[in-house]
Every structure is written in C-alpha cells, then in structure tokens.
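User: What would this chain look like folded?
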Amino acid sequence: MVIFCSAGTGTLKGFQSPTLDYVFIVQIDEMMDVKYSIWITALLCTTCYAGHNNEEIYLNMEEIPAMRLYRNLSMHYVKQRPVLHYNDTLQVEVFLRLFQLLDLDSSSETMTVTGEFHFKWTDSFLKWRLEDFPGITILSIPANEIWIPDISIINSAGEVRNRDWLHNTNVNVNYRGNVIYKIRSQFKVTCDFDMTRFPGDEQTCSILLALQTYWQRKVNLTFTKEHRDIDITMYDDDGEWDLIGSSVQSMSYEVNVARHGKYAALSFSLTYKRLVSSLLYSNLFNVSCGGHTIFNAKMDLAKFGV
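Assistant: Here's the prediction, encoded as structure tokens.
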C-alpha cells in the first residue's frame, strides 16, 4: 500500500499543513496496522521543511523499531500452544463485562446481551528485551497471526459459536509476552425458562464458554484475579427486566475420557426478574363482543399484589 502526502494539503483525513514542500511516497508494508501506517505518514508530513519542491522521499520500514520488532517476532513464530515445556499448563484468564440486555424471549427460550469478553494469557514466544527496542512496551498484532485459545460458546443460538469469533480484531502484547484480547459483540444463548410464576417470574440464563481442542491439563480456563464475577459497572437496564443477580462458575466436561480427559469450561450466569409494572402498563386490553369494543382498560396491579 502506498500513501502520498503532497505540499499544501495531505491525503490524510482532515490533515493540512501549509509548510509542506515535500512530496512523500511512503511504501507501507501490507502487514502493518493501518492506524499505525497513517500515524507514520502524518508524522513525516508534519516534520518536513520548505525548500525541497517536488522532492520524493521514500521511507524504509526496516528502520522503524516497531516494524523491526514485529518482523523479529513473526519470523519464526509457529501457531502452537505457546509454552516452553510440553507438560506445562497454559492458563487463560477470562472475564465478562456486561453492557445491556437486548432480549429475553420465552417463546424461543433465548437471551441476547451485548458485552465484552477479556482473555489474558502468556505467550512465551512473544517476548522482547526493552533495551533492544527502547520505548516499545506494547505491540498490537492481528489475532489471526498468533496462537489463540480455541474457545467456543457451546450454548450459542446466534452467529457467535465456534472459534472463528476470536479472529476479528487485534491483540495487545507486552514485552513480557502477556497477551490481552478483547471481544465486544452480541451474544445470543439458549436458556431453560420457567413460566410457572408469570408475570412475576425470574429467569436465569448462562453463557457457557468451553475449550474444544486442548484438554484441561494442557490449557485451563480461569477467572481473572481482578474480576471474580461479571462486571456490571457499565450495565444499562432495558426497562422490562431487572438484573437481580450474577455468578460465575469454573467447570469441566468429558469427551472420550480414555483418550483425552476433561476439557475446561466457564459459566457466566445472569438472573433477571420481570418488571410487572412495565408489563402491565405497556399493554392495553381491548374486550370486544360482536366486533364492538366494550371497554379499554389497563389491568389492575393490585390483582397481582404489586
């Protein structure tokens, strides 16, 4: 990809510099993050001096420390379980930040929420010495270029189901090899509804994460030390259901125990109580006889003891 920056105005978004007299032809490596590429071009375009009309300057990407680091890390990288010793157990820490309940549907027995999963683990092959790359403590890398845990939402009722949902963005890696990966999306899962106490019912739904390839003694799922429950600090009520409880649980499941053993799994459970007042005041009941409306009234809340 080539980015041009010419005198007077630039091709960058909203960028203008009347002091520009260089014409920059910047050859950007295809693997470089686009935001980082634009930053490089903007830096060059704002630091040039007058007096060099129509001169072309080419940027050598190998001279950029972040690019050299990226090439060094990826040169011999193999997308395998990133541990130094085969018998080591890789710990993957997880927590869920909940944003909003979009739907709790008793007819389809599904729950749809928006949230953000955070995954943290250590990749022993993505480390570097700060003295070799001064000032670079964190690097952003496309998720599909490194090893990531094969985590699935096993009770998904929507598009997010298999491990492909973990390849949509970048991961942040620090010089110690600590990987932080954030996935923000809508999550639709199946639930078991109990309608016996309708309209004063309570429903509990869970998002079930599980590993699919590595058994638990190879890759284990745990909760982060900072978050031993679902983070609801940014949660926004939907007006129909009241979030009255949440819990997390570490689990495991078995598939062909003789060969593989147990696989790690995590449960993120949410308990909601239906707001009867919202249900009743949002519905008007028309009673008809022979096509004629007899009355139109809101139901009396006292009948339900509220």
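The chain is about 10% helix and 40% strand. If you want, I can go into more detail on any region.
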